[in-house]
Batch of 2 targets.
Target 1
Amino acid sequence: KAKNKGRNSQAIFQEDMRTHSVSQFQLEMDLRDAGEDQQFQLYYQPILDLNIGKIAGFEALIRWQHPNRGLVPPIEFIEIAEDTGMILAMGEWILKEACSQVQQWQQQFPQQPPLFIGVNLSSRQFLQPNLATTIANIVHHYRLDPRGLKLELTESVAMNDVDSAIQQLTYLKDEGLHISLDDFGTGYSSLSYLHRLPIDSLKIDKSFVDRMETNQENENIVGTIVTLAQRLNLDIVAEGVETIDQARLLKGLQCQYAQGYYFSKPVPRNQATKLLSQNKIWQIDDV
Ligand code: C2E
Ligand code: MG
Ligand code: MG
Ligand code: MG
């Protein structure tokens, strides 16, 4: 009986593998059509300046409206897009869309400093030797004030090939663009690299922000990252702020920028425009 059971679970396992790879394969096929069928959309999540309680910019986040599966989150398809190389065309589309959008917003809602847009770069994109010139061309094409584009890359993307990263980032910085290190604290970058990389800001990962309220030690970690950023002359953004208490603590720790569901989830373009025209001020009394 035990033998039978063993064989059955083996069969089930194989069946499972098959369904899994079939659906992965199907997703990959669907992904190939998605661009042409305009199933991709950028959503925008506000990034607040905590000092004034107003929107300073947005992060662009890709969404895939699949014809039968509904909204497919990026974690389910970015990796496939990377493995197949589709990320290159997709990434270029994202940059164009984001630049053209923020340029429009800068015109419609002028403020000092101008509204910015954060755009995520994947490792495959970053390994393209012509990435920097491609991005510079897009910025020129849309006549975007380059301070308005903030490229977000994770520590692992930057650490992949540090020398080439320094070269690409230096070029982009000379073009006037802004570089952010995303999910800061979750990777394994050494402080000496952090110092060598020409970056402009750190985004504190959500996991640190989450635990901040419950534990003094975690609040100290966030405070220490903020101090580190100040010492290195970097801007600092907290990710994943979900409660007013987190927002207050962050403001008290002199973290200037924050984004998260407490302020707004990522929203489609029209809703983001509406948020800007409301010119809403979030009242955050620091502690
Ligand atoms: P990320 O760049 O760290 O983006 C932040 C993620 O946290 C987003 O998830 C956002 O919706 C989510 N988030 C923001 N505030 C909160 C909050 O208060 N609570 C919670 N629970 N989540 C919050 P999303 O849009 O699902 O994106 C996940 C990841 O996929 C991104 O992480 C990024 O690495 C990647 N991604 C998204 N869009 C793009 C893109 O256009 N290009 C590339 N290369 N990667 C992208
Ligand atoms: Mg990001
Ligand atoms: Mg992030
Ligand atoms: Mg993240």
Note: The pocket of magnesium ion (ligand 2) is lined by residues 59, 120, 152, 182 (CB under 6 Å).
Target 2
Amino acid sequence: MIQVTDLHKSFGNTDVLKGINCGIDPSEVVCVIGPSGSGKSTFLRCLNLLESITAGEVVVDGRSLADPATDINHVRAEVGMVFQQFNLFPHKKVIENLMLAPVKIRKISEKEARERCLTLLEKVGLADKADQYPQQLSGGQQQRVAIARALAMEPKMMLFDEPTSALDPELVGEVLAVMKQLANEGMTMFVVTHEMGFAREVGDRVLFMDDGMIVEEGIPEKIFSDPQLERTQEFLNKIL
Ligand code: ADP
Ligand code: MG
């Protein structure tokens, strides 16, 4: 689904990504862990061209992102993204938040969009909140709306950048439950997270990033129980 080859990203003279190689198979759930500033968010943002690529190649569903012939909007429509901050439109109702992109970009009718989006709200357990505004919802509910909004574009894969880091602890579980359900349905997912329980239970593979590179990767059991590198061990000791 995604093939990344020797990806480099610099901001001015600062090299942030220093040669990333990685592939994601359809229906795979890949969790990314690593210290703050190691380049996790930048990596994720390169996958749907929220950041330009300095060097290397990223191929998403057969399309090379650096190829001028690639329609960036098409790629973005296929790759849903959920951020730490929910980024909902505050002046729009929940249902309108979901309907906006399908109507404007996918050009489906308001009526069909409304029906589909209501189904998605049901899926994340928020059908009764359709006509509320984001501020009337808890953080966990807002993040579930953000996930439903991303799904409304019927993406082929979903990127999550620390989706539960801004939430009060008691609200984390409801968001992880929605993500787990998505994974069980076969969604391809790339998840930056500090939720090691989630990574262990739902992840097929864990990537440990440090200083702009993937320095260790493997199945969760291996990374968490028997990390090969000292810096992986040090990081895990700090957060577990
Ligand atoms: P992480 O998500 O792992 O915490 P980031 O990808 O956010 O790491 O950041 C990696 C490094 O890139 C940091 O040193 C950060 O300061 C730098 N960085 C990120 N975005 C920008 C930007 N737009 N301009 C300059 N530097 C940036
Ligand atoms: Mg980050």
Note: The first helix runs from residue 40 to 47.
